[in-house]
Write a structure and sequence with these properties.
single chain; mainly alpha; flat
């Protein structure tokens, strides 16, 4: 796996961080707000670097997919959001889509 894909995975992980904290970022907790904004900037920066080698559609879909899946899981675990069969099935479908995009992206 090339460095671009590692950067994209890092960008996706940071998206999980900022998306998960965003719910609490503006509740007068300056530390959470600072972490959220720092994770946002770092996530976008890594995404931009990854897009230099990975096709834009693939990179953006993988980045948002990682963030969506991760934030949904964090929501279910940390924020006690519903973990219904339908939600879990949709998460599985997103993961399948991400894997498909990675497999069909060619060599980056």
């Amino acid at each position: 796996m090339s460095n671009a894909w590692w950067m994209l995975l890092g960008a996706g992980a940071l998206e999980i961080v900022w998306a998960s904290l965003f719910k609490r970022a503006f509740e007068n907790d300056h530390v959470i707000t600072a972490i959220t904004l720092t994770a946002m900037i770092a996530s976008f920066s890594l995404l931009a670097d990854a897009m230099k080698e990975i096709p834009i559609g693939t990179a953006y879909a993988v980045w948002t997919g990682i963030g969506a899946v991760g934030a949904a899981i964090v929501g279910m675990i940390i924020y006690k959001e519903p973990a219904t069969f339908a939600r879990i099935l949709c998460i599985v479908l997103i993961v399948a889509g991400i894997a498909g995009l990675k497999l069909t992206a060619g060599r980056a």
